[in-house]
Amino acid sequence: MSFENPENDLGGKENEVAAIPSVSKQAESDTPLYQPLDAGYIRLLKLLPGSGPDPISIQLQSASLEDPGPYTALSYVWGDAKVDRRTIYSGDTELSVTANLFHALCRFRDVSETRTWWIDAICINQSSITERTQQVGMMLEIYTKAERTVMWLGEDAHPNLEMLFKVAKARHEYARSKHIIERPGGKTPVFFYSNDLESMKIVVNTRDRYISRWVSEDARRLYTSPDTDPKLVTVAFRDLETGETNSGSEYVILDLDFDKARVLKAEKESFTDFYTFLLEAIKPAEFDLTDAQCIGILSALDYVASRPYWRRAWIVQEAIVSEKATLVCGKHEIDFDVFCLVYGYERSTELDVKNVILDDVRIFDFQSSLGMPMQVKNQSSDHISINFRSLLETISQIGLYRTRGQSKQMRDLTLGHLMGIFGEQLATDPRDLVFSLVGLLRHFSKLPLQLQWAETSIDYDLDVQTVFKKAAQHIVDSYPKHRIDNQPRRDYILSFVKFDLSRDDTSLPSWIPNWAANRGASKVLFAEDDPQIDTLIEYDANVQGDHLVLSGHIVGTVTMSTDIGDDENFYNEVDLYNTVVEQNLGTRYGSQADRFRAFWRAIVADNPISMRATDGDDIVPSKPDALRSWITLCLENCQKLQQIWPHRLKLRRILGPLIAHTKDKNKQGEKAYLLLRKLLDHIPVEMIDEAFKQDNNLDWSPTEAGVPRQFIITERGFFGTGLPGVEVGDVVAILSGSGNPWYLRKQGDHYIVIGKGWIHGLMYRDDEYHRRGWRDKVEVIRLR
């Protein structure tokens, strides 16, 4: 379903269905094109043959979803429904569709055969709310019963797309071949097929040199004569399952595209056995990539990942539930699962696939991968705003959930969990942000509360606020009182809330997420990997009208709140720490050294990620060591700054970056000096002279959560961080079921939610404040 407008940031305007295709006046009335559908029926689109300049012609026919026959479902972004529309024909009736859909129809039309599709924009009468509600309720079955789903990204316009797709296919095929070759010996013959006769001859000669060792005794008896076709040779006999053979037959043919240089090199090397030789000889040219090729692939990945398609709400369900999904961009196409195995963030558990992101670029090995993204940015003619750690997040998550769904690992799936993972999707109709995930619950979850809610939740007669409130109440009511298998939860209702200054008394209560506006609110701050205080107060939340009523403890009041901005160089933070020292704040933490540690741990919310060791692709959970390294670095930098800029640290924050920029842009010292004098003529000459001679480059460590934008201190001396919006007078509260403290603001008999906090001294169960005990101070808190 596609009530989106990607050209307007995919968001469109609230309550505006901007992307509904307009049909001719004849069709808008009650014509045969859109006769009412019987219950359980859908419309299928017959895409008639044609090519080149031929008009796009279609026919619509109804079909029972119980037995619809073979068809392909299209998953795509409509595009801007108000501009650049194109005309297609159903008999004598003209239909106006968006350009992106028109290009898709041109791409998939066959020159001689009629093809059957299901395409929401045309197969659903978009002017009928009743039909939309009915058909959206059937979306799950529509995509699960399709022979395949085509994920249409649009026309391609990137020079490296061919290499991107080719590398994925080649590496997956090698992994499949490797998996078969490494299977135990058996009686199923494995053949190599290739037109590269020179490479095939080397394989045969090498095989025959190892004849006494390359097959089992039983299999060797089956191999009684040399191969008669030089393009098809026997290389092994294996014990294979039916799904691993060719169409269930009793043999396997591996169609190879040899890297001739690698085969010639392998021929001259010495191997312990024939199969070790094979695994090296059949590696494709795409197995090893140069830095230049990696840069080209990353650039193409950025192009693919930045396509509007991935922001669309409905694609999540469409891609995950489909039995077979094909990713198509212009003339290039690939099995989506293969694409995810080679470019996603998850390791394959069955095939040993060499992953570009994890193995070549090593994007999670922070020390080794920092240079690659910068090279992409520097070599690109266009500005590429890439966050390489989140570049393929949506794509990887969809691939992961496809895998989990196919292996039946999502029996405990909840709406809150889905909103936490896919909460950044966009839709012109905000209700689709919820409705688009309902089918996943129906298809995978085995939890009664989830299934009961899913059965009746889709209703386009409800307004946006009602849909959001019902979804929020469901998340509150179905949230478990205790951890499942002692695992932390990520679907706490307030985790989706972000303080919004524009909210007024007529909008949603502060505890109900405005999913249409708060993209990524659940992931913005504090990537705490092991929440500990969520069990301090047993979860007991319930909804009473517009109020969320739950147990909590008010820790204290905010007495200082400072915006420290997005400061990668930490100069604001150093100035702020000096203020803390001058005013003797934070004495609750103990000595000056203890206060120093507390301040800098609060600044990064205990997540100095690049200080952690890595083991392969995983970050070793060595937080204590990482924090010690981080504090040591902070101490060294603070001392260095004090030596370079005594008594004028605030001036350093302005002057230092400018000096560094001037030095970098102009290596001619005198000219740089004159430019600096002109820009800063209000600063004494001797100060500029001194500053220009100093080494101003400090090495701060990037953090997992990003640099917090708000620093707070409570009247009890706690240091903390939060998102913008926290004010003096707000309170810090521990709420039942939550792994973080919260900032709340008193309004009459209730509080409003300002945002999630990270407070040093309140985050861990063994913190002194929790050990002292405050259970007698737990009270009922009403949020609105």
End-to-end distance: 33 Å
Count of helical stretches? 28
Strand order of the largest sheet: 2-1-6-3-7-11-12
Poorly predicted residue ranges: 1-30, 381-386, 520-525, 614-620
The helix fraction, in percent, is 25-40%
User: Could you describe the largest sheet, including whether it forms a barrel?
Assistant: 7 strands, mixed
Shape call? globular
Q: Overall mean pLDDT score?
A: 82
Radius of gyration: 31 Å
Number of strands: 22
Overall SS class: alpha+beta
Question: Which strand-content bin applies to the residues?
Answer: 15-25%
Main traits of this protein?
22 strands; Heterokaryon incompatibility domain-containing protein; HET; 784 residues; HetReg/Transcr_Mod; disordered N terminus; 28 helices; alpha+beta; globular; 16% strand; 36% helix; six-stranded antiparallel barrel
Topology:
Layout: H1 25-28, E1 41-47, E2 58-64, E3 72-75, E4 85-90, E5 93-98, H2 99-108, E6 115-118, H3 120-123, H4 129-136, H5 139-144, E7 148-152, H6 161-181, E8 185-193, H7 197-209, H8 217-222, E9 232-238, E10 252-255, H9 260-268, H10 274-281, H11 291-305, H12 315-321, E11 325-329, E12 332-335, H13 336-343, H14 356-360, H15 366-369, H16 371-379, H17 393-406, H18 415-422, H19 432-444, H20 448-456, H21 464-478, E13 542-544, E14 547-563, H22 571-582, H23 592-603, E15 614-615, E16 618-619, H24 623-644, H25 649-665, H26 669-679, H27 685-693, E17 710-714, E18 719-722, E19 731-735, E20 742-747, E21 750-759, H28 768-772, E22 779-783
Parallel strand pairs: 3-6, 3-7, 7-11, 8-10
Antiparallel strand pairs: 1-2, 1-6, 4-5, 8-9, 11-12, 13-14, 14-17, 14-19, 14-22, 15-16, 17-18, 18-21, 19-20, 20-21
